[in-house]
Amino acid sequence: MEENPSTEFLENFLLNYTGGEIKLLQTYYNEGIALLCINHVEKRNAITGKMLVDLRNCVLELEKWENGKAVILYGEGIAFSSGGDLNFARTENNPTSGFYMSYYAHDTLKRFRKLPFVTVSLVHGPALGGGAELAVYSDYVIVADDVKLGFVHGKMGIVSAWGGTTRLMRIVGERKALEMVLTSKIYSAKECLDLGLAYKIVNSSIKLAETLNFVRALTVHDYSIIQSNKNVTNFVSENSFEKSLDIEREQFYPKWGSKLNKEALDKRIKHVQNKN
Ligand SMILES: CCCC(=O)SCCNC(=O)CCNC(=O)[C@H](O)C(C)(C)COP(=O)(O)OP(=O)(O)OC[C@H]1O[C@@H](n2cnc3c(N)ncnc32)[C@H](O)[C@@H]1OP(=O)(O)O
């Protein structure tokens, strides 16, 4: 087994497993919002090797997006994602193939986590195995009222392949995460909310519209402010307190006296709570 396989090698391997696509939609780019769409409807959005390559290409494109603010990851059709492609799982059923698939996905998803944008997973219908793992990579998990989310890996005789347990633990805490992966239980929307996994429940018939509104409310400020805040929270979640203060300072001081800062000071803003 090649311990540090090249991207080219891994992509040649994964591209043997075709079907479906993951694509970036620019419909709301003018608002600084990108849609990342999982589309393999006939297989309930199972993630093929080719789709893992698509996902990486989308993330590489997002890395170049200078004035982006947010990304919404969602699934077409009646599922968020039924997880890893079982055709791949059956054909490449050996540890070396598992290592290659996991190594490649980890690298992509680490990059996704480091994006300086607010990331939101809109999760509906089945989100199982790798589907649940993808769901928890975002900053916010919004679930539709028809969600069925489960870390079912244990039932399949495996553990999380794409780093989902690490992410899950950071969201719901150690004991709840352990319970979820040890039981392979499938959770409803209300249960996801009670666990602290979901941030909000949306109506499945208007789920994208509701999620867009949620995202718009979080992205009212200039993209530079959003990206700096995200750089700080990304760093804090991965690094020590001391290093975090350093990065927070690095993100802060160039904005002290910037055009935006001066304009805000000139407005003599009074920070009273909005009355709705
Ligand atoms: C790599 C990380 C680890 C993993 O993710 S391991 C995979 C874990 N996921 C699973 O085991 C999901 C298995 N699938 C299911 O439980 C059900 O299909 C599911 C998602 C609840 C949907 O149920 P239904 O709506 O009744 O649909 P269905 O069963 O008739 O499926 C429709 C077609 O989709 C296919 N499908 C579903 N999940 C798949 C998968 N993960 N990989 C490949 N194909 C998958 C299914 O075989 C069926 O295909 P076809 O129409 O018979 O050709």
UniProtKB/TrEMBL annotation:
It catalyses: (2S)-ethylmalonyl-CoA + H(+) = butanoyl-CoA + CO2; (2R)-ethylmalonyl-CoA + H(+) = butanoyl-CoA + CO2; (S)-methylmalonyl-CoA + H(+) = propanoyl-CoA + CO2. GO terms for molecular function: methyl/ethyl malonyl-CoA decarboxylase activity. It is an enzyme of class 4 (lyase). Its main location: cytoplasm. Pfam families: ECH_1. Transmembrane segments: none annotated. It comes from the Eukaryota. InterPro entries: ClpP/crotonase-like_dom_sf (IPR029045), Enoyl-CoA_hyd/isom_CS (IPR018376), Enoyl-CoA_hydra/iso (IPR001753). SUPFAM superfamilies: ClpP/crotonase. One of its GO terms (cellular component) is cytosol. This is Ethylmalonyl-CoA decarboxylase. It is found in: Cytoplasm, Cytosol. One of its GO terms (biological process) is fatty acid beta-oxidation. Belongs to the enoyl-CoA hydratase/isomerase family. Keywords: Cytoplasm, Lyase. Its EC number is 4.1.1.94. Decarboxylates ethylmalonyl-CoA, a potentially toxic metabolite, to form butyryl-CoA, suggesting it might be involved in metabolite proofreading. Acts preferentially on (S)-ethylmalonyl-CoA but also has some activity on the (R)-isomer. Also has methylmalonyl-CoA decarboxylase activity at lower level.
